[in-house]
Write a sequence for this structure.
């Protein structure tokens, strides 16, 4: 515990956390100015967003549901980035994970807990393979991981769309697969809340009822566990040390006896597995099926943003994922309430990342403020 | 025989159509990366350009004005990227990701304001013209839907893309500006000591890449189709980025990569239309799988400009 405290203090001193917080502040500030220029009252908009996040238990649980896949794809991107690899492929790995989980959840007949573990396990293996491919292409053939993951994303999308056309798997004409078995679902009280006893009980407890109106599930718990796992592996194991050494300086790592090529493959296997888990939890907990995708859903790309805002660390991704999920869910409400484009959220996220990219600018601003305070 | 020839023409025609928007953006990518600045924000710049191009063409009725404004829209994001990466030593990939969010954000934000809350524009009254039809009259030069017609009677943007590749090649390799730009990308400290302004060259290169990516977006929204919609640009900027790396950071290489990619797309559509016994869903993976196979089998390691992604800080002292 003390070491977490120490590292947090270290972050503050290094300014990483203050840079992130300043960037978020700029995001809200400039986002507000843009709303103002477009003729909307920014304070009203932020009020609507805040109310849309916190004013009902259901909203809060939706925020958590929205954030869960973003946290995990963020972890995937962060993990690879610490080894110096840029995983644009979280999107495709997510798709492969979701596909594997939907297939395992539907075709297999297993008892409750075992079914969930099998489905998630298969999703992680398939997606780890998908990510590992990019790592192997880079290690063995020198293929830039940015290109290979972009190509693998689209390949995954079309494989998934094709799988949905298989008659025993997809419901003909709906563009969706059959729902997974109840034994594979990770919804909290998902079956019970539809029984007469459940409904009767929930009528007495409106708060709980409100929460259970959303597809609340165990995904978030797993996301937190995975964030802890990523933190542990990267910071407390020899493997993590080696991976980070490669990310820091591959030549020095190689000279120090670490196999850079092996590290690349392992890092991408891990990253792929994480993104696949995100897809699996989404299927087992929220959608219960997969659907034909016309374009990318963006979980992987949003994961890049989460990783960058979260300073590429496990705990950072949890907070950044929650921030992103809140804005995405809360921000969707300004359209209906005041006719303001929800895409101001994209702009805000863009501005936050823009400033995160420029620690030099933020340090200049902070130093300037300090100087003014002194005078 | 005649159908065979026409089939070939069809594939070539589709290839050109799909490649053109990518070529603009990929050449833009080459220019910025040769100066040492990574631009992973091409996607957002294409997206914003596609919207602005269609919106301006819709309101003004002039596709060329739309095309030019699309370039300016991309260039404005390019300017932001340049400010971050050149002036404030930003992490280039991070800033590029920011451009992708901003490009999509600005396009859809403005679209909703201008087009009654819709995330698409209305159909433009006039698309980018077909220059041969324009010069010689429709169906006058080549028999309509014949080989020559299918291959050569293409939107002006197609011709412009090829001219652009030539110009970019010429400037990069045959002019002093090109030598300076490449010197800045390979060894900024040395270039600086010779009195070349790393700052100016990089600003110019990044803004140009944005301009070209914007044009690429418009080549999609007001030539290939006739309106912008929120799903029109979905990954094209990333494919262009891949084409640039695939083409080993050379304009002619990027052109070839875009054509291979477009060709695979053309082949996919052709095979789908001919009822080849491969599920059409799997056929759709062809361009992507083919790209990977070529990279793994033939191209392999590609070497970026030496200073790419590294921060150049002239220093105050």
């Amino acid at each position: 515990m003390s070491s977490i405290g120490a590292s947090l203090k270290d972050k503050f001193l290094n300014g990483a956390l203050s840079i992130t917080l300043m960037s978020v502040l700029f995001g809200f500030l400039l986002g507000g100015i843009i709303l103002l220029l477009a003729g909307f009252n920014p304070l009203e908009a932020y009020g609507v967003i805040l109310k849309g996040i916190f004013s009902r238990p259901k909203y809060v649980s939706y925020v958590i549901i929205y954030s869960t896949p973003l946290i995990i794809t963020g972890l995937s991107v962060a993990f690879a980035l610490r080894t110096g690899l840029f995983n644009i492929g979280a999107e495709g790995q997510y798709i492969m994970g979701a596909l594997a989980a939907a297939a395992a959840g539907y075709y297999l007949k297993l008892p409750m807990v075992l079914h969930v573990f099998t489905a998630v396990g298969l999703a992680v293996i398939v997606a780890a393979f998908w990510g590992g491919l990019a790592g192997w292409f880079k290690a063995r053939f020198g293929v830039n991981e940015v290109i290979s993951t972009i190509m693998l994303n689209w390949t995954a999308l079309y494989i998934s769309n094709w799988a949905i056309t298989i008659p025993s798997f997809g419901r003909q004409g709906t563009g969706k697969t059959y729902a997974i078995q109840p034994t594979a679902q990770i919804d909290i009280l998902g079956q019970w809340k539809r029984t007469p006893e459940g409904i009767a009980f929930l009528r007495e407890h409106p708060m709980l009822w409100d929460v259970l109106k959303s597809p609340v599930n165990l995904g978030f718990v797993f996301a937190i566990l995975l964030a802890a796992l990523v933190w542990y592996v990267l910071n407390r194991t020899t493997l993590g040390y080696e991976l980070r050494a490669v990310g820091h300086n591959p030549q020095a790592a190689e000279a120090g006896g670490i196999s850079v090529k092996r590290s690349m493959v392992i890092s991408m296997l891990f990253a792929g597995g994480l993104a696949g888990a995100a897809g699996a939890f989404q299927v087992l907990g929220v959608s219960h099926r997969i659907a034909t995708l016309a374009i990318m859903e963006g979980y992987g790309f949003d994961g890049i943003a989460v990783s960058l805002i979260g300073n590429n660390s496990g705990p950072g991704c949890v907070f950044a994922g929650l921030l992103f999920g809140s804005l995405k869910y809360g921000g969707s409400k300004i359209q209906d309430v005041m006719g303001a484009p929800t895409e101001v959220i994209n702009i805000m996220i863009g501005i936050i990342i823009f400033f995160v990219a420029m620690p030099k600018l933020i340090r200049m601003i902070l130093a300037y403020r300090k100087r003014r305070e002194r005078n | 025989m005649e159908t065979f020839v026409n089939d070939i023409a069809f594939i070539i025609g589709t290839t050109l159509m799909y490649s053109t928007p990518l070529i603009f953006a990929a050449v833009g990518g080459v220019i910025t990366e040769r100066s040492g600045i990574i631009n992973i924000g091409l996607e957002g710049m294409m997206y914003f350009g596609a919207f602005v191009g269609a919106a301006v063409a819709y309101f003004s009725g002039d596709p060329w004005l739309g095309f030019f404004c699309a370039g300016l829209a991309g260039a404005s994001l390019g300017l932001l990227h340049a400010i971050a990466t050149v002036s404030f030593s930003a992490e280039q990939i991070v800033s590029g990701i920011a451009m992708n969010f901003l490009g999509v954000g600005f396009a859809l934000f403005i679209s909703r304001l201008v087009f009654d809350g819709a995330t698409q524009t209305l159909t433009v009254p006039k698309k980018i013209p077909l220059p041969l039809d324009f010069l010689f009259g429709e169906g006058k030069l080549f028999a309509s839907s014949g080989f020559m017609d299918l291959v050569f009677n293409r939107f002006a943007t197609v011709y412009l893309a090829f001219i652009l590749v030539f110009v970019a090649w010429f400037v990069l390799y045959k002019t002093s500006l090109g030598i300076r730009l490449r010197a800045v990308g390979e060894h900024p400290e040395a270039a600086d000591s010779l009195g070349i302004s790393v700052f100016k060259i990089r600003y110019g290169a990044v803004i140009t890449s944005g301009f070209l990516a914007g044009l690429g977006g418009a080549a999609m929204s007001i030539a290939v189709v006739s309106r912008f919609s929120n799903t029109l640009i979905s990954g094209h900027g990333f494919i262009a980025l891949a084409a640039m790396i695939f083409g080993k950071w050379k304009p002619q290489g990027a052109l070839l990569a875009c054509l291979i990619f477009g060709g695979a797309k053309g082949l996919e559509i052709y095979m789908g239309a001919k009822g080849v016994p491969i599920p059409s869903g799997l056929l759709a993976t062809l361009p992507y799988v083919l790209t990977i196979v070529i990279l793994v089998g033939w191209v392999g390691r590609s070497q970026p400009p030496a200073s790419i992604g590294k921060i150049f800080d002239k220093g105050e002292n």
User: Anything to note?
Assistant: The radius of gyration of chain B is 20 Å.
